[in-house]
Amino acid sequence: MSEQKKLKKIKSSVLSRSFQLAKLTVSTGAKLTTFGASNFLAGNKKNSEIWQQKWNAFLKDRAKDFSQDLGELKGSLMKAGQMLSMYGEHFLPPEANDLLKSLQSQSPAVAWEPIKKILKENLTSDQLAQLEIGHEPIGSASIGQVHPATIKATGQKIVLKIQYPDVHLAIDSDLKAIKSFLKVLKLLPQSINSEALFSEVRAMLIQEMDYQLEAQQTQKYALLLAQDPRFIVPRIHPEFCGKKVIASSFEEGESPDSPKVMALPQERRNRMGLNFIDLYFTEIFAWGMVQTDPHLGNYRVRINESGQDQLVLLDFGAVRNYSPSFLDHYKKMIQSSLFLDSDGLLEAAENLGFIKKSDPKDLLAAFENFCFSTVEPFMTPDDQRNTHQQMNLRGEYNWKKSDLPQRLTKEGFQMVQNFKLRPPPQEILFLDRKTGGVFIFCSVMKAEINSRQLLTKHFKDSSLKM
Fold first, then answer.
1. How far apart are CA 34 and CA 201, in angstroms?
2. Cα–Cα distance, 127 to 145 (Å, whole number)
3. The domain that contains 136 carries what CATH number?
4. Quick one: which of 11, 78, 103, 326 has the fewest CB in 10 Å?
5. Same domain, 120 and 33
6. pTM recorded for the entire structure
7. Are residues 125 and 21 in the same domain?
């Protein structure tokens, strides 16, 4: 990445960010008015199909502008877009979701000089003198970027995750801007408790910018997985950590979707899919805490000659803890869905706040069918619901060929449209985010696996280990 392509400066002040965001919102409002008037005069609104095509094209252009104009702002704007788009799969119009996803696009890395300033503010001159730090980042994200370093005394390679300057100050203004933008385009349904939704996203954004907490969570996962050779967690170097800097061991590995990983035999890719699912179920049902940011960039595959490939786990900024009471109901809801227990499902779902037994029967039936479909990868081959030919007679589910996410998205949005279904509990937002990531990982691995036992073994012991 050349120096010319890097950002020399981030618009980190609330004033400068708010001005640019407000300018874009006002511009959007004006263009919306023009769009409505021109199409009304042309009589397009009478032809709903033409109107919809033009509306979709208009929103696509605005999403492009939104992404391009704000790509250099970094920080909470991009991360919030990612979080909200996961929620929006079921409860926001597709147009709103497309716009939010546009905020996830790659933006340039930040040049060395602003990064060096952050390092000097967080590490002493003595600490910095012990390190040889590469000026070229090896990873760039919305909140910070990663630079390679070497401990001079030992020659050990480490990495420094460095937070961009003052991004934490703009959380509230960025969230306000996204909400205003969606409201101007009338893409925020009135049926959604947007205050609760944005409050949940705000809390997670604050947590993900707490690098000291992230270092602690990384150490916690490293301890929990210390005896499990399937996984590698980077070792934290506290002697080189600061409030906005995390120092950890450099762990080699390939991207999960790299050609080298894709060239591995089916059996080895299957094993990685099984291990990934097993870790998720262990997190939620045994530990009561989940790393809720399953982006592929947060994982590496260490290919071993023995065939026992390992998964490197990166980035523990989005770890969320769940109460035993929530998990008890959530587990019962999943177990009831798997075993077609309508009464148990509705009872657990009511306890979690999804539905009320006094809701219309059509809504309860639609909700039940939706839940019964979510466990499709863990059914048995002779299950009456196994009608989409994604599972063979050995109970092996083909994650790559499955269209389950698309079917669930369609069913979920239809429930919202037809029955004004209340939004799910806030805790579900980030669990859905992780569940979607599990599906993507297994799909990328082209896994064909029987993972039923990985789920059902947790039904036998409902007590949390932590």
1. 33
2. 19
3. 3.30.200
4. 326
5. no
6. 0.85
7. no
